Amino acid sequence: MISEFRLPDLGEGLPEAEIVQWLVAEGDAVALNQPIAEVETAKAIVELPSPFAGVVQTLHAAAGDVVAVGSPLIEIDVPGGESSSPSAPAAEASAAPERESEAEAEAEPEKAVPNLVGYGAAPRAAGRPQRRARSGRPLAPASDTAVLDAAPHDVVADEPPADVRHERPRSTPPVRQFAKQLGVDLALVEASGVTGVIRREDVERFAERMPPAPAAAVASASAAAVRPDGGARETRIPIRGVRKATAAAMVRSAFTAPHVTCFLEVDVTETTRLVAGLRADPRLAEHRIGILAVVAKAVCLALRGEPSLNSRWDDEAGEIVQHHYVNLGIAAATERGLIVPHIPDAHLLGLAELQGALRELTQTARSGRAAPSALTGGTFSITNFGTFGIDAGTPILNPPEAGILGIGAVRRRPWEFEGEIALRDVMTLSLSFDHRLVDGEQGARFLAAIGDVLREPGRAMLLV
């Protein structure tokens, strides 16, 4: 039986996704839940598991295509039945029972789709997805542009063995993206390290050995994306993926929630001493607790006293929703753009557990593997300007959250301390909040409470 798998809604409510790479090829045997493709949404790169076990018959899109949710993605020949692929429309003179039989035959593959989240929810879309060039202009159907879309090595290199061609190369998402930009097939690249993971340097060495591309391929590549070279005066980058989603969210935030930002300079000398002492403790050496973890803990404690900062505005229901938990968002700068994954139930974690969660969150975000569920549902966020050596800034709210805290770099500065001038560690905190939900008094008290904990970490014992 030929079963069709359509691109599901990955639980993010996004209308489309880009095919990063196929992990299978036509003719491959696939098992149930075996990863078949990597797709990039506006939030993350995720692997799609196969909902069927069988043999791949047709791939309806190529790497680089943008596919709408609900569009055909792959057809798999599932053992155990005759082909039930949609047949041609019946003639107008056909009887009604025949048309009903055809409708039932068309619906049969969809019944075979497992009841997974988002699978099969979208209506059937006719035809294959239209391919797009990097400029965003639609090209001809895939079958008519096979030569133009071929990478240089596809024309001149020997065809690799089938087992090598269909095996998934071991590499990271940024390296795969880099290889795609250069037109390099990772299946042909050898890893230089002992781990067998293909690195950026391996891709660069392979690209240097590639012969010059034919004129047709060069024309297609230039239409797809303009890269800086000797003659280029500008570069045009399609607005899509994380950048598109971030821009839409920031515009919505700036023009929907009335922002107010307040600042507080804090003597954090005692906190930096606490962090140094924790790192020197051999029992905690593996945790490498940093100042961001302390700030995160201070935020969770302060939100107990000011629940308005841990709420959201529900315009449709006409309600203010106060959260009795803290899903703490951490703004992370990645190669794909700015994303804000969150630590679920951060208010239940101790300092060492928070540090571990922060480390795992950062590594996952930078690898492009943040799960869609980790990128939605945050209740309050932190953005760390200090990572880039910046003292302060005015954070923009991550909708629909009511507040976001910016932390600046720790500076050694002359500071009044116990009636004298001394060199102290000073940090600037900046809090932006939604003035529909939070009054100035509440925002000021919340920021002061965080400052108190950082100024005297022992005060946290009073808030636990």
Structure write-up:
This protein has 464 residues and is α+β, with helices and mostly antiparallel strands. It folds into three domains: 110 residues, OB fold (Dihydrolipoamide Acetyltransferase, E2P) (Beta Barrel); 61 residues, E3-binding domain (Dihydrolipoamide Transferase); 222 residues, Chloramphenicol Acetyltransferase, CATH 3.30.559. 30% of the residues lie in helices and 22% in strands. The protein is built from 13 helices and 19 strands. The strands form five sheets. Strands 9, 12, 15, 16, 17, 18 and 19 form a seven-stranded mixed sheet that branches. The chain has a four-stranded antiparallel sheet with strand order 1-8-6-3, with no helix packed on it. Helix 5 packs parallel to helix 6. It starts with a strand and ends with a helix. 32% of the residues are buried. About 21% of the residues have low confidence.
Can you summarize this structure?
This protein is of the alpha+beta class. The protein is built from 13 helices and 19 strands. The protein is 30% helix and 22% strand.
What is the CA-CA span between the terminal residues?
A: 61 Å
Share in helix? 25-40%
Radius of gyration: 27 Å
The second-level CATH architecture of the largest domain is: 2-Layer Sandwich
Could you list some keywords that capture this structure?
464 residues, alpha+beta, OB fold (Dihydrolipoamide Acetyltransferase, E2P), Dihydrolipoamide Transferase, 3 domains, seven-stranded mixed sheet, four-stranded antiparallel sheet, 19 strands, 30% helix
What topology emerges from the helices and strands here?
Elements: E1 2-6, E2 16-22, E3 29-30, E4 35-40, E5 45-49, E6 54-59, E7 66-68, E8 72-77, H1 96-111, H2 146-149, H3 152-156, H4 162-166, H5 173-182, H6 200-209, H7 215-224, H8 241-256, E9 259-267, H9 269-280, H10 291-305, E10 311-314, E11 319-322, E12 328-330, E13 332-334, E14 337-339, E15 342-343, H11 351-366, E16 380-384, E17 403-407, E18 411-417, E19 420-434, H12 440-455, H13 460-463
Parallel strand pairs: 12-16, 16-17
Antiparallel strand pairs: 1-8, 2-4, 2-7, 3-6, 4-5, 6-8, 9-19, 10-11, 12-15, 13-14, 17-19, 18-19
